[in-house]
Write a sequence for this structure.
């Protein structure tokens, strides 16, 4: 076996992640440090195998069901890519939002789509208090279906973005950081600024900033959350961040100044989001189908946003980061000033300089998703990775 | 070979189903008893292999084309699952209803989508006199295309629900019954009540009650069809049911009393449908694009339904069945009183008690569809099932 | 190895097509004669293998991304079939037209969808000066992404129809002609009439007539382009046709008489298209979102079409062709007089007589697309075709 794969396997041998077998992936902070490290190692190993033209298909047949309750191109393709990498066919569940109700219907639909399903990927991020809950309802239903013998296998749930966390995005972001800094051991004391940025659009989900502070506080980094007053995120996730920081020997601080957050930062993640309170309000308005109220709220939020049009990742701000060269992150697509909108989250010249690293950041997501599936399905990941390498089935065959 | 698979193969060895090779599946009553028994045996065998983690992929590549002229989640996933089980990729043909005209265009489209197609699954149940006819046009077109050398293979048609029958549903229902009663030999003299039930929705297809009486009269059971006056099904299918019952030593009777149907029944299948005469009328209104007429008809039908709101599968009625424990069937989704609607087809407590058996009932459909395809494609099913078991390619590989 | 496959390999051995490796397919006239001959030979070889039940899957996993900016059933299925033949799963990119902007966004989206993509097939034919340009932007983006290490592989672009050419259609048409005439060596001096025909619909793309005159002038044939005054195609493509004809020893002439074009023709291709000038005008109106202007233009064009309702491929015209039996071509669907419209491109009896050859013409397209992919991906196509034949993996397995 090649030494690179051996290194990943050695890494896995030193970790305890047996709790992932047969499980699901909801929130990063429900996983142990070892479990997250296992996801990173398997993601790197799968990528290494694929880039060595070695097939990583562990499924000869089987379905990966995708359920998107919000439009998505990037996440849809990431999920499809991950499924394809492992040998699963994607089958989209395209019920209208209204048709997928809660309770009885979730239980039924979850079983009806799962007779051949090994994985279910769900994106449901629009309504506070709903998305994560819905995912749990689905998992409860298929767990019961499997227990009752209705389903031959329990499909694994991968949270492709909920109202609380965006684990596949943040884990991909984190793996990118680990690679850029040459290893997780180099992150201690590094400063990362997760900051709000102005966008002319309304109602962007909170799952990215929440996911970032919930995850990145676990590696001994100094995590700063910056936003204008009124743009608070879920307090429960802030508590997670505080707890993580204390445990990891890093820190978690908050500020209302973008400049303060950027100052001396090694990594910056400027991105727009809607205030948590407003998202809660919106959820209630949708529940009441109050179209007038929704329209009024949108107007109010856009006006509120417009007061903070100066929250932009400019060249001036970037110059204040560590060596003027902080790693710039974004989950994409970004609102780029003068390109996709008049004034946005980031200056065109900054975005342009970081384009390749940004695309590389995104490139980890399919492998992170595949690793989450792999660890939930495979009893002995190390042995199975070895076996795949030994089988050496070409991903692409030519004579 | 394991003894369970051997038993299925022995069963097949005793049957004459050579007429299925190269064929299609339109209506159950166009198939011999042996042919239906072969579908059940192959479905069970494929399920057994998959649940033993043995790949049943007979196709290394190839397309399964799905064409739904009515919305569908369950049937769509069943078809996708069946195709996946055999190694086919599903390609949806999503032309608007209006674009798929009859005549010239059917012939052309059928060939254009079939260059790599091994299977075509069609659901077309909305218009009386149309759906089954359309399926035949498609089969005629691809048969001619194959004869002329345009198509390297003739795709197999699977009727995923037409205006006359719903063979994949009813065959799955039947296989469920066979399993629940411990074998087809235990069904003689059992009473099954196919009864109309109240639903607040309009225009549900007739294919399930018709399919049930057309199929379940073949096993020596006492089949009772119950509905309020005015909710007649196609008379031609009733004739089929009479003929079948006489031949099988069972009976086929009709009643306008739900209570009478339920009394002492071993199996009950309470489900709403629209009157045949109304469906015919609606078809003509659609042909004339008479929006006013359609609206008026809908109103009239809902009013007619509302007169029979007492046709509900209650605990009281269930208590009158054999030992108070009849097997409750439904093709799902059901209209559940107090859950999905105020008053519906079934009481919540009844539905709740039968949830697991209901999901199990549905779980047979992918295997029934796969078996129909298998028998149409494979010249020697017994030898091929044996060969798959001997190859023992894991469906899911892990070391 | 069987002698038929050996003949295709011998043919390839005599050709220089090494320039196709790693490349893309935009326009036929950007390819050398040898390169086009290689596409034909590989298409025939892949078809021969599949029809001999030999798997041609060179991909164990991988995605083929389809991006259609215009509705399509035929091309969508051709692309899906080609991908399936080689082992790729199709993933559709269904952004609304408005969402896929140019510039920054193209670059980003192209990379985001390509992490597992081996092929991208694009249809973008509606706007003059846009479609081909867009395809180049996509290729530039993924080439750069691959160079920067973001993408493990550079996906191959296949032009599934642009504003200039329709190479997969015209190459399929040409392979059909080659087969019908018993070899490319028999085409010298044959007369082919690419003529406009009346259709009651508006704004049909120019890519077929342009693709035909740009390709078919390369085989020593006498190519006649016929259309009413005002229905000119792109002058740049006419120049290509002139140049090709001179080089190949054939001819390229133009006429405003359908009768003249048909007279003594060996092959006729009567088909409607919109005037180039009108398409340019329409593109500008769309840019300005000038709904009124678009409506006015449509009205004007339909009126202009109606002046040429006599441009129909009638029995009388067919009788004037070589032996009264010219090969009739159409890319389908055709506007058939008295069938799909009152007056259209072709008489019903003519169309009816040529139905089987027309379907056969279409049957080459999946293989042409697969050959384009194969030649861009495989370094030694001859050795790989041999290896596939030797492996002899059944496309469809049965014992």
């Amino acid at each position: 076996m090649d030494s690179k794969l051996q290194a990943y396997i050695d890494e896995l041998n030193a970790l305890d992640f047996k709790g992932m077998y047969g499980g699901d992936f909801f929130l990063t902070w429900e996983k142990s440090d070892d479990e997250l490290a296992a996801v990173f190692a398997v993601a790197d190993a799968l990528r290494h195998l694929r880039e060595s033209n070695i097939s990583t298909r562990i499924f000869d047949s089987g379905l990966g069901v995708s359920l998107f309750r919000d439009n998505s191109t990037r996440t849809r393709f990431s999920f499809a890519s991950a499924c394809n990498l492992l040998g699963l066919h994607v089958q989209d569940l395209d019920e209208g939002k209204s048709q997928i109700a809660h309770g009885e219907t979730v239980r039924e639909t979850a079983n009806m789509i799962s007779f051949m399903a090994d994985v279910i990927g769900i994106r449901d991020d629009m309504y506070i208090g709903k998305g994560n809950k819905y995912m749990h309802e689905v998992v409860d239903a298929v767990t019961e279906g499997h227990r009752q013998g209705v389903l031959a296998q329990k499909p694994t749930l991968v949270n492709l973005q909920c109202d609380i966390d965006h684990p596949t995005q943040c884990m991909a972001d984190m793996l990118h950081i680990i690679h850029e800094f040459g290893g997780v051991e180099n992150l201690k004391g590094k400063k990362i600024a997760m900051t709000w940025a102005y966008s002319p659009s309304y109602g962007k989900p909170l799952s990215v900033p929440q996911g970032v502070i919930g995850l990145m506080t676990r590696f001994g980094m100094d995590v700063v959350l910056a936003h204008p007053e009124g743009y608070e995120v879920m307090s429960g996730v802030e508590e997670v961040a505080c707890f993580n920081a204390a445990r990891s020997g890093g820190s978690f601080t908050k500020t209302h100044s973008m400049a303060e957050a950027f100052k001396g930062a090694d990594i910056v993640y400027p991105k727009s989001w809607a205030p948590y309170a407003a998202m809660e309000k919106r959820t209630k308005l949708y529940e009441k189908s109050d179209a007038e109220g929704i329209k009024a709220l949108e107007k109010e939020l856009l006006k509120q946003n417009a007061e903070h049009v100066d929250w932009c990742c400019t060249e001036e701000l970037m110059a204040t980061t560590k060596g003027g060269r902080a790693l710039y992150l974004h989950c994409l697509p970004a609102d780029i000033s003068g390109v996709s909108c008049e004034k946005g989250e980031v200056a065109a010249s900054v975005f342009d300089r970081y384009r390749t690293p940004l695309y590389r950041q995104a490139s980890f997501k399919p492998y992170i998703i595949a690793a989450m599936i792999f660890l939930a399905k495979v009893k002995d990941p190390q042995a199975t990775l070895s076996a795949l390498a030994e089988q050496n089935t070409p991903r692409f065959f030519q004579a």
